[in-house]
Amino acid sequence: MIDIKVYREYWEGVQKRIPEIKKVLPVTIDEEMSKTIQGLSKEECPVLFILIPSGTGASLSADNVRENNLCVIFLMSKYDPQRKGAYETIEEVQPVMERIKQMLIEDSATGCPVTKELDLTSLSTLPESGFYSCLLYTSPSPRDRQKSRMPSSA
After folding, report:
1. What pLDDT does 146 receive?
2. Less packed terminus of the chain by CB within 10 Å, N or C?
3. Is the pLDDT confidence value at 132 over 50?
4. Cα(38)–Cα(132) distance, rounded to whole angstroms?
5. What is the pTM of this model?
6. Which residues contact 27 (CB under 8 A, 6 or more apart)?
7. Per-residue pLDDT averaged across 68-88, rounded?
8. DSSP-assigned letters across all residues of 38-99
């Protein structure tokens, strides 16, 4: 598994390299995440939420141990549906997500200690709206869709 302190520091460095990202917040999917999202102002967005990466064994032999590390990030931007639609919000945030994806690929090519541990072969982006009136993206590998969403009652 990736060292989570190094992982957090990597994403804080991404924020410095992409000035459109206003804040990086490490989170777990629980009621605290819900409170954090609800407490954010539009001025603090877009916010990059980072979940602790998960690691799964990818070896058939105990002599050749390998682990695939999957990470999920959310780039969230709040919007007022009376002034702007979900599509317009997605259009505004998409270039930032594309820069993040490109940075992951470039950092992996340079031997970055964090990105070299990630499975970038399944890099994907899932634009969403209506998640607390925000935008949801996962990268590089989406977890089970049921696990990546907050309960509707939260």
Report:
1. 42
2. N
3. no
4. 8
5. 0.71
6. 33, 36, 49, 50, 51
7. 82
8. HH--GGG-SEEEEEPPEEEE--SSTTS--EEEE--EEEE----TTTS-HHHHHHHHHHHHHH
